[in-house]
């Protein structure tokens, strides 16, 4: 089984490193291609460095495309006749739909296509990687891809029309969570002499422990609130403020991000 990765930016590099460290791929079965070949120098001796995208396509059973919409179109037009007949092509760009991908890939014959959205938490093997498939993909292909990317963490299959919201909840969420607790930590610093570093550590470890507690004990958010926020107590006062103010912020956040996603998808459609 050969794995090809076209595009060696942060995402392509993350995939390559994880596949190698997990033993999913070897120096002879991982084929890397990038527009700027010099960026692949660090992988010499660890993978097959391809001189072109076509070389990666010709050898890969699973071909990962890590590129922007405009670049994906160019790459596909270049490699479409070189892709193995039974290969699975996996796009890591959620904005490019199967309709657009199939316009190029399925001109002469049907190709198996998947879309995959990982999370930055893949760096610690804790990603919830979202996947969806076109109609050409069979059960064995899905199993094969899951076996490859499970080294990143959990694999969640969603229909294509839910990948957008799924991405908000998984891929974007680390950024949202970091933003929320950055604001909380900055606010806390205004009321204490505790150092900013210690505040951040205290909050992060509490967030991590609370998440683990909820998952292990199968607790809901309401369960945790009721356990900590005793009636008439201090926590209850803080929780009231959050429940009163945060719904508007959360609604606006999703409105803005989903609208941006819609516009990005529309732009991708125009490119294709």
Q: What is the string of SSEs from the N terminus onward?
A: EHEEHEHEHEEHEHHHHH
Low-confidence regions: none
Supply the number of helical segments.
10
CA radius of gyration? 22 Å
What structural class do helix, strand and pairing data support? Answer: alpha/beta
> Quick check: average pLDDT?
96
Helix content: 40-55%
Q: What separation lies between the terminal Cα atoms?
A: 31 Å
Main sheet overview: 8 strands, mixed
Silhouette:
elongated
Strand content: 5-15%
How would you sum up this structure, described in words?
β7, α5 and β8 form a beta-alpha-beta unit. The two termini are 31 Å apart. With 272 residues, the chain is of the alpha/beta class. The model has no long low-confidence stretch (mean pLDDT 96). The longest helix is centred in the C-terminal third of the chain and has 38 residues. Strands 3-2-1-4-5-6-7-8 form an 8-stranded mixed sheet, sandwiched between helices.
